[in-house]
Design goal:
mainly alpha, 0% strand, 39 helices, 816 residues
Length: 816
């Protein structure tokens, strides 16, 4: 099949140059002829001028007229006509009048009147909407119009009317708190429909988040007291009153109110629902196993079934009756059936208030039964649904009840140390509890979790304990972040400085010292006196931890000078001594420690005195004052044998004896007389013997307490003790004993580069024993061990040489 032939489009002929010139020539010819005619006589000139003036005047007058019409302002009469039309219920006319005024200038008050009319029209249109969501949105538009009208001002005395219409639309859009204020203002205007306003106020009070049921009941009684109230509205008010009495657990009054409803009432289904609820709540107030309780629960079922039968639309009343049937099962101890019914309601009536209430009840069941993951799923679904609703229907599940139940769930998670679930729940609680409360819960939960993990890690050195401490500190840093967020949220509140302190403290315990410094400085800036001494101490400690030694000493000395009588001054002095020690100012550090020890205010039982004694021993050792160091450390070990620091102190004593032997060794070499050499030799042997005994004592201590299998500190000290024993025995020329000591190291650490050190020392011992063959065999064994060590082995952690340097050293030694 051939394609259709496109139509032929004829090109449009363009005027030629000659054509254009011809038209201009004809126009010029006509103008010349008119000019010739006009200038032929004076009379013709006058006639042409007058005609031109008239035409110009007409153009100016027309322009002026139309401009005046376009800028004519809105007058009060126009606004009054529109308001009157709205008051008379002629909303279409009112809307048309306002539409005509929209493009004309107006004073703010008259503009406020026009917006007032638009608000009234929108409020009326909202009542005509069938869709609840659409109705709420139109009411929101009415609220915006009416609020703007009240801001600009209204002509005449219409503030009361505006307050009434505003309150009505606020109720319609679910803005209960604002509605209460507007309706209470409207009631002060006696010209407004008080009964209708009170009925709206009752709805706002009952639906609001605050506990206003008693006030709602009082307003409802005033509604019922109106003799002009229509029968339908009276029945509606009776039902509302019965529900309010039930909310207040006033069962007698609720029953009496329901009894006032006439037979055949249009609210019969609602009345049956309330009657069933009344029976259930009365039954719950009776004791377990009471015959009357069972009778009331049986009667409740009949009432609820009647409500379902009367609800021909199978709508909210049916859903509510189903929910109360499930609650009846729960009250009757039929928990498995109740849970099944709650699950059914939650799945069938999704995204309805009844469905949410059922899901929350089911989640509570699962939580109490230990099914925490399934409970968490239910809580999340409920909280997401509440967050997604712009207006929350709290008639079946008041927010106060939701808060109470979620608080119970959260507290159970915390009490049972299920901190992960507790924090997961907090992440969804903001729609119900607000951002501040959730930040506080998040901070406190993370802090409790971290501190508990830190306490249980036992401060040991086993890998699992180290990992537990790392995780605990991560939790504490998360708590610090949460507390800092809380502080920013409560910047203007009295808790601000407390939140800063908690944040800094958690950062400090989590070893995020840079963040701790930042927040402690901010705390000291804002807080006048509370905990300032402790804040200065922690600030100095944090600066010491990150290597800011100069700033640390300044801060700690400020703490000591400003709070000399405070208990923290002793700890500040200890920390300041450590900072000076890091700066190489050992003399100043020693003076500070001595003040703690001999100043008279501290007792040996205090931790500051104890730590100062250990610290002074270490400082003396670093100062190479070995005899003094041994004396102080020996005193510390004898006073506090169970302290963690005691083991390191014992090892330092051994090192002090060992290092102190260098002086007599030098005297022995330099001695000129036999007496000098004998005295030096005796001192040398004495120090080395004491060192060997001390190393052995530390080795036994570690072995007996049974932590050498995983504690990193114990492993390091034990390894060093083996090596140092070998070194001391070698220096004592007890080569066979040294061989045994180094052999223990090789056997215990054959997969560690430290074994290479021992092989070298063993080879030296064989050489001293005049066994060169055994020495070479030992070096060959060392080369074989070196080859078998994995490529990623870190040699510099435990030895002084890299792999290449070890290869070179062992090759060179094997040639000797």
């Amino acid at each position: 099949m051939s394609e259709p032939t496109p139509p032929v489009v004829e090109p449009t002929a363009e005027p030629t140059v000659e054509g254009r010139r011809s038209r201009r020539a004809r126009l010029a010819d006509r103008f010349n002829r008119l000019a010739s005619w006009a200038f032929a006589s004076r009379l013709r000139m006058i006639v042409l001028g007058v005609a031109g003036m008239l035409m110009l005047g007409a153009m100016v007058a027309g322009s002026s007229y139309f401009g005046q019409v376009a800028l004519e302002p809105v007058d009060l009469a126009s606004v009054e006509l529109a308001i009157a039309a709205a008051d008379e219920g002629r909303y279409d006319d009112a809307k048309l009048l306002v539409g005509q005024m929209q493009r004309r200038p107006a004073t703010p008050r008259l503009l406020g009147g026009a917006l007032f009319v638009l608000g009234a029209v929108k409020a009326h249109e909202a009542e005509l909407e069938v869709s609840p969501e659409r109705r709420r949105l139109v009411h929101e538009i009415a609220v915006r119009y009416m609020r703007k009208a009240r801001t600009l001002g209204l002509p005449g005395k219409r503030q009361g009317r505006a307050a009434y219409l505003l309150g009505k639309s606020l109720v319609g859009s679910g803005q209960w708190k604002d509605a209460i204020a507007a309706l209470e203002e409207a009631l002060r205007d006696e010209s407004q429909p008080a009964t209708e306003i009170r009925a709206l106020l009752v709805a706002a009070l009952l639906e609001g988040t605050d506990d206003n049921v008693a006030d709602a009941l009082k307003q409802n009684e005033l509604v019922l007291a109106d003799p002009k109230l229509s029968p339908e509205n009276r029945e509606r008010a009776l039902v509302v009153g019965a529900g309010a009495h039930l909310d207040l657990h006033q069962f007698k009054q609720a029953r009496e109110t329901l009894a006032q409803l006439p037979k055949g009432s249009s609210f019969a289904a609602t009345a049956s629902l309330l009657a069933g609820r009344l029976e259930i709540e009365e039954a719950q107030s009776l004791g377990e196993g009471s015959p009357e309780r069972a009778a009331k629960l049986s009667a409740a079922l009949s009432r609820l079934q009647e409500a379902v039968r009367l609800d021909v639309e199978n709508g909210p009343l049916t859903r509510q009756a189903s929910l109360w049937m499930a609650r009846r099962l729960e009250a009757n101890d039929e928990h498995a059936a109740a849970l099944a019914e709650y699950d059914r309601i939650g799945s069938v009536y999704v995204d309805t208030p009844e469905g949410l209430a059922a899901m929350l009840a089911a989640a509570d069941y699962y939580r109490r039964g230990g099914q925490f993951e399934r409970a968490m799923l239910g809580y999340r679904q409920v909280l997401r649904a509440i967050d997604a609703q712009l207006t929350y229907d709290s008639s079946l599940m008041p927010l106060s009840e939701v808060r109470q139940r979620l608080t119970t769930a959260f507290q159970q998670y915390v009490d049972e140390e299920r901190f992960a679930e507790a924090l997961a729940l907090v992440e969804h609680l903001e729609p119900v509890f607000g951002r501040v409360s959730c930040a506080e819960w998040r901070a406190k939960t993370s802090q409790q979790w971290g501190e508990l993990q830190l306490a249980r890690s036992n401060h040991g050195g086993r890998p699992e304990e180290v990992a537990a401490r790392l995780e605990a500190r991560a939790r504490l840093r998360a708590a610090g972040l949460a507390y800092e967020e809380l502080a920013r949220l409560r910047y203007a509140a009295r808790q601000f400085s407390d939140d800063l302190w908690s944040a800094a403290d958690c950062y400090f315990k989590g070893q995020s010292f840079t963040q701790a410094v930042r927040l402690l400085q901010e705390y000291l800036h804002h807080e006048a006196k509370r905990q300032n001494s402790l804040a200065l101490l922690k600030l100095g400690q944090a600066r010491l931890a990150i290597g800011e030694y100069d700033q640390a000493t300044v801060t700690l000395e400020e703490c000591i000078d400003m709070y000399p009588d405070d208990a923290v001054a002793h700890q500040a002095r200890l920390e300041c001594a450590r900072a000076y020690q890091q700066r190489g100012r050992l003399d100043v550090a020693e003076q500070m420690l001595l003040i703690n020890l001999v100043g008279g205010t501290l007792k040996p039982a205090s931790p500051e005195w104890r730590n100062s004694l250990f610290e002074l021993g270490g400082l003396l050792y670093e100062s190479e004052r070995y005899d003094e160091a041994i004396e102080k450390l020996q005193e510390a070990v004898e006073r506090y044998p169970a302290e963690e620091s005691a083991l390191v102190a014992r090892y330092t004593i051994a090192r002090a004896y060992h290092d102190a032997s260098e002086a007599p060794a030098k005297r022995l070499q330099a001695g000129k007389t036999e007496n000098e050499r004998q005295a030096a030799r005796a001192d040398l042997i004495g120090y080395l013997t004491k060192a060997h005994e001390s190393y052995q004592a530390v080795q036994r201590k570690i072995t007996l307490r049974g932590r050498s299998g995983g504690d990193e500190l114990d492993l390091a000290l034990l390894r060093n003790c083996y090596l140092m024993q070998g070194a001391v025995l070698f220096e004592l020329r007890r080569f066979e004993d040294a061989l045994q000591a180094y052999g223990n190291v090789i056997a215990s650490y054959q997969d560690d580069p430290i074994a290479l050190e021992s092989f070298v020392q063993v080879a030296s011992c064989w050489r001293r024993l005049n066994q060169p063959v055994k020495s070479r065999v030992t070096l060959d064994q060392a080369q074989m061990v070196l080859k078998e060590l994995p490529p990623e082995t870190d040699f510099l952690t435990t030895t002084n040489f890299s792999r290449q340097q070890w290869e070179s050293l062992l090759t060179q030694m094997s040639r000797w």
